[in-house]
Recover the amino acids of this structure.
């Protein structure tokens, strides 16, 4: 749909390959960090593999890709915007989500630090924090009607988010319409966090 976009397929946990591929792909003005994994396990059963993979993808990849892109923006002297896709789980404990909640909380704080340090370079950094989104990953983790009903009952709008709900929020944060917004988290949760 967008002929000017060239996808790069790589393992973001491989910092050398990521540096080479993303570094050669610029220049950039906008960045959306959306890669994530949700390896759900009860706290007492969290495995080292799940922890390491989640930290690599949900936190480390965002830090690294943002470094590469922000350095290019600064070198070119252009203003920019970065949006990191976080989650309502960064602010509310969820059963079997010990690692996921923790990595998303870390992502929220990383985004605030990025906003503070990159602001003088006219680079804005924000997060969107959606509820469950009906992506493939969302369907896998929330396909059990008993599990999903308990969550939906806590959402005042009574439904999970669709992809467009999140995309529209990201587009707002990337646009000049949010020119004075940085270091913020935009909840796309149907009111989950107020219930």
């Amino acid at each position: 749909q967008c002929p000017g976009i060239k996808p790069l397929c790589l393992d973001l946990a491989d910092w050398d390959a990521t540096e080479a591929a993303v570094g050669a792909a610029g220049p950039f003005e906008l960045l959306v960090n959306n890669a994530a994994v949700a390896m759900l396990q009860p706290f007492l059963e969290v495995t080292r593999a799940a922890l390491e993979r989640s930290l690599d993808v949900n936190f480390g990849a965002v830090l690294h890709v943002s470094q590469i892109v922000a350095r290019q923006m600064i070198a070119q002297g252009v203003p920019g915007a970065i949006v990191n896709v976080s989650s309502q789980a960064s602010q509310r404990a969820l059963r079997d989500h010990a690692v996921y909640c923790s990595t998303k909380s870390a992502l929220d704080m990383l985004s605030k630090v990025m906003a503070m340090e990159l602001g003088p370079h006219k680079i804005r950094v924000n997060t969107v924090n959606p509820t469950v989104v009906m992506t493939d990953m969302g369907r896998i983790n929330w396909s059990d009607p008993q599990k999903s009903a308990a969550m939906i009952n806590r959402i005042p709008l009574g439904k999970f988010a669709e992809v467009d709900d999140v995309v529209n929020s990201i587009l707002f944060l990337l646009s000049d319409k949010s020119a004075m917004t940085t270091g913020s988290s935009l909840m796309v949760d149907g009111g989950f966090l107020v219930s």
Notes: Residues 15-194 form a domain with the Rossmann fold fold (CATH 3.40.50.720).
